[in-house]
Design brief:
By secondary structure, the chain is mainly alpha-helical. It has 12 helices and 2 strands. It has a two-stranded antiparallel sheet. Strand 1 and strand 2 form a beta hairpin. It is globular, with a radius of gyration of 24 Å.
Length: 380
């Protein structure tokens, strides 16, 4: 659903650019809290989330290369907003998808540069917000089980894709450059993206289910769903010899907590390496077999004349344009190498962004320890 240059006029493109910039700024602040452990799971969970955020961006980039057929002459691909939000949090998820869109636009000439604000608004913000809102609502009413997280992931991802189609139609109604009946655009976009949503839902549910099966502590959306065992005793219980106790015994749960050793931190290295390997295999190998049919937006644009106003991409001469390496004639080698480069570049940029975000939060917490402890700091 990458919108190219020329589909949307300059004023609306600029307006969506402002919306995207504000959303990214808000997400940077929110991601600091997510990566620092605010909310269910605490800082221990955050230490596991931070190293995975860059990997999630790289994985989304890789899987977006795997176009799958959805109808005659039409394909679809993962948008990734639901997957990112559920795995690493909604604010961090917006940043993950935004990094992917930036790398695709700059390196691979996929999605217009003047339309970057449109694409971030549609594919990063709308999908993430809609998916995570639906996901949280579902996990509140479903049984508190791991399977419920997977089911909620499927439904949230499924509906996030047509929501993005509706958002694009609204943007096009405001600033479309071709004279096309909006009703027809709406019907075509929502119809085809409902089908694409099924693929999105399957990929999201399978990925979340696979992670939650081996390391549920790594899934942001599953934090706080497992309640610790609490030991309780009757307040009427007294000493066995019938004498009156001088002092109440310490609470068993507190005593057990004090006596129990601190749990050892579990390394995320194996999961990180497995995720990276999966991303490299998808981008470097499986992508060769992806459907060559146009995706949902491309098909609708061609059928309804929206693409008449499309403009050449500013990065069309990039050595990686169209996901191939310039001057390499072997299509499989060229595409696979471009995919591997894209995964590496997205991983590097995404990880760099999240390391900076995490360190800034840590530095702020160090400077204001009273605020970190939930107490107002005293001015000197």
């Amino acid at each position: 659903m990458h919108v190219p240059d020329g589909f949307i006029n300059a004023p609306v493109s600029a307006a969506t650019g402002v919306v995207a910039a504000v959303a990214v700024a808000v997400s940077l602040r929110g991601a600091r809290r997510e990566l620092a452990g605010a909310g269910p799971g605490g800082s221990a969970a955050a230490e596991r989330t931070a190293p995975l955020a860059g990997l999630v961006a790289a994985f989304i980039f890789a899987v977006q290369m795997l176009n799958f057929p959805v109808a005659a002459g039409t394909s679809g691909h993962l948008l990734g907003g639901a997957l990112a939000a559920i795995l690493v949090g909604p604010y961090t998820g917006v940043l993950c998808v935004s990094v992917v869109l930036l790398m695709q636009g700059v390196l691979f000439a996929d999605g217009g540069l003047t339309a970057l604000g449109v694409n971030i608004t549609d594919m990063a913000i709308v999908t993430t917000v809609v998916a995570y809102a639906l996901f949280r609502g579902l996990v509140k009413v479903l049984p508190r089980r791991r399977r419920s997280v997977t089911v909620a992931s499927f439904v949230a991802a499924l509906l996030s894709v047509p929501a993005a189609a509706v958002a694009f139609t609204a943007i096009y109604a405001l600033g479309g450059t071709a004279d096309v009946p909006i009703g027809k655009v709406f019907t075509a976009m929502v119809g085809v993206h409902l089908l694409i949503g099924i693929g999105e839902a399957a990929i999201t549910a399978l990925t979340v289910g696979a992670v939650i099966a081996v390391r549920p502590d790594l899934v942001y959306g599953a934090r706080g769903l497992t309640q610790p065992l609490e030991l309780r005793t009757s307040p009427l219980a007294g000493p066995a010899d019938g004498t009156e106790a001088a002092e109440p015994a310490p609470a068993p749960a507190a005593a057990a907590e004090a006596a129990a050793p601190a749990p050892a931190r579990r390394s995320v290295r194996r999961v990180w390496l497995a995720g990276l390997a999966a991303a490299l295999v998808c981008a470097g190998g499986i992508s060769y077999y992806a459907s060559a049919d146009p995706d949902g937006l491309e098909k609708v644009a061609h059928d309804h004349g929206i693409d008449r106003k499309a403009e050449d991409h500013a990065a069309k001469d990039s050595p990686l344009a169209d996901y191939s390496v310039k001057d390499i004639t072997n299509a499989r080698l060229s595409g696979g190498l471009a995919g591997v480069i894209g995964v590496g570049a997205t991983l590097a940029v995404g990880t760099g962004v999240f390391v900076v975000v995490r360190r800034r939060r840590s530095a702020a917490t160090t400077e204001r320890p009273d605020a970190a402890a939930g107490r107002p700091s005293e001015s000197v």
